[in-house]
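WARN no homologs supplied; continuing
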Amino acid sequence: MTIQGGDGAEIYALRNNDNLYSIAVIFGTTVANLMSINNLTTNNLIIDQKLIIP
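OK structure emitted
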């Protein structure tokens, strides 16, 4: 599920079986970009975790 943020960025709630690569492909960005903008240091994700989508 995505929610439009106040600054134009989307917020994505992680679902079962999501991973950074698949999310990056869906939204036309890179894993590195997702990790950077969300201050992630590992690929470990949690269901319902919110990610900012650039």
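The CA atoms of residues 9 and 54 lie 6 Å apart.
OK
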